Amino acid sequence: MPIHCMNLPPSTSHRLGRLGRLVLPVLAAGVLAAGCHGVPAAGEKAARREVAVAGEALHTNLPGLSTNATLADCVRFAVRNQPRVAVAYADWAASVEDITVARSRPDPKLTFEFYVGDALTSLMPGVMQDFPGAGKLAARGAAATAESRVKYFQFAGAVQQAALAVGQSYYPLHYLDARLEVNRQTLGLLAGLETLARAQNEVGRGTLQDVLRAQIEAEELRTDTVDLEDSRRVLLAQFKAALGLRADRPDPPVPAEAAFVETKLSDDEWLALALKQNPRLQEMAAEIQVADAALRVADREKAPDFSAGGEVDVKASPVVWNPQLSMTLPVWRDKLAAELAAARAARRGAQARLTAEQIDVAVDFTEQAYLIREADRKLTLVRERLLPRARESLTVARAAYQSGQLDFLNVIEAERALLDFQLEEIAGQTQHELARQELTVLIAGVRPEPALVATEEKTASTAN
After folding, report:
1. What is the mean pLDDT of residues 176-197?
2. DSSP secondary structure code for residue 118 in this structure
3. Is 39 helix (H, G, I), strand (E, B) or coil?
4. 398 to each of 60, 190, 418, how far by Cα in Å?
5. Measured between alpha carbons, how far is residue 255 from residues 33, 67, 165, 240, 249 in Å?
6. Which of 138, 155, 253, 391 gives 20 to 30 Å between its CA and that of 422?
7. Are the C-beta atoms of 352 and 345 separated by less than 8 Å?
8. How far is 448 from 77, CA to CA, in rounded Å?
9. What is the DSSP annotation of 343-369?
10. Residues with Cβ < 8 Å from 450, sequence gap 6 or more?
């Protein structure tokens, strides 16, 4: 409650009035000066450095993709150009600024009080400053720091998802282009078979039906090629969107090389990395730290807050100095208990979500690891046994047909088998790489742009 120095002896009142005239401006200046810069919370400076480094990497001039751009170039371009990454970065940067807001003292207040009857009898300017209870600002700063770590891992996840989206849109496009190339080669093969059938027909070793079969096969393949070329526009639009390019921008170049990568780690090593480095798991672990910080904030709410200041009655003679002190009374124990209970429940929920996500990551990992093994087995079968035999079978069939020992239908069947195995090889490569990319996101492996996300050591030091 306010304490007023009133009705004092004239000499004492005069001395206090002079003291008030001296102290009040000094107090006001001191409060204002102290409020200009607060004490950084633990981890606040490190968080600002991380935001600055990532922002510099994101906001540097982004060169366009050249015609000979690689898939890695496309990934780096997408990470810097993808709006979802920019949104996640902005949220993270805002959360780092919130640390300063949370740990800062309330603004001082200039007060002005006067009494008016028949005339102005009292005019009292003053200044007041609120002082939160012991440990409250530090606890709020720690809570805001923990929140910023959650936003950081959401940003890291957005970077990884942007990289994944490029691969998920590129490899089907690459598969389609490879299919088109196989179709063109097969059309050339069918043209040669048609020429062979005509030659056999002219010498009486074949019939016109063989020529028609070759033409029918070629027409069906041409129609399939046209359908594939039409569908390519859809896949190209998806690839363009993954790069963060608007529809009115020119189509990007599509890397010619797929850069398939072989996996060298065992399943146990992959899973250990997934559980350790997955951005989503790290985000949920950070949410537990948020809940812990909220517990400390709720525990501090039982401490009272204080206000201090004073006013000077400049109309009084002698001038009167009115110091003022006040404190809150945290008497609503049910409210304090509810805040603590809510914080404890939030922590239990965060821990349960982390456990559930760990289970989901393990299941996703198992599925993607199986797809990789399945694709590898398929590729081994096709490359080492089926394709060589299919090529040999077609060569033998052509020779046998040319010598009149085999009918043309067997040649067509051999050609179809070779086409199917070539497409299976491309499909196996694509399945392998898509599954590997999924695992890369699960484990947060080689990051596409090191400057955009902190290393594990930086993350640990910032959290401390």
Report:
1. 88
2. S
3. coil
4. 60, 12, 13
5. 58, 8, 15, 12, 18
6. 253
7. no
8. 10
9. HHHHHHHHHHHHHHHHHHHHHHHHHHH
10. none
Domain count, the chain: 1
Per the domain annotation, does 86 fall within a domain? yes
**Each residue's pLDDT tens digit, 300-329:** 888 898 888 888 888 777 878 888 888 888
**322 Rama sector, left if φ>0, alpha if ψ -120 to 50, beta otherwise:** beta
Residue 456 lies in a domain: no
Task: Give the CATH number for residue 63.
Answer: 1.20.1600.10
Position 15: which residue type?
R
Average pLDDT over residues 255-284: 77
- Look at residues 455, 447, 284 and name the one whose alpha carbon lies nearest to residue 356: 284
Place of tokens 């008016």: 116
Residue 328, domain extent: 10-445
| Distance between CA atoms of residues 37 and 39, nearest Å | 7
Q: Look at residues 303, 309, 4, 3 and name the one whose alpha carbon lies nearest to residue 130.
A: 309
Let me know if residue 294 belongs to a domain.
yes
Q: At what angle do helices 136-202 and 408-443 cross, to 10 degrees?
A: 170
The answer to whether residue 68 is domain-embedded is yes
Say how far apart CA 85 and CA 272 lie, in whole Å: 27
Fill in the DSSP letter of residue 41: P
155/323 Cα distance (integer angstroms): 50
Largest CA distance in the chain: 139
Taking only the tens place, the pLDDT of each residue in 7-34 is 444 444 444 444 444 445 545 555 455 4
Chain segment 333-360, per-residue pLDDT in tens: 888 889 889 889 989 999 999 999 889 8
Over its C-alpha atoms, the chain yields an Rg (Å, rounded) of: 37
What length does the chain have? Answer: 464
b or e along 136-161 (b: 16 or more beta carbons within 10 Å of the residue's beta carbon)?
Answer: bbbbbbbbbbbbbbbbbbbbbbbbbb
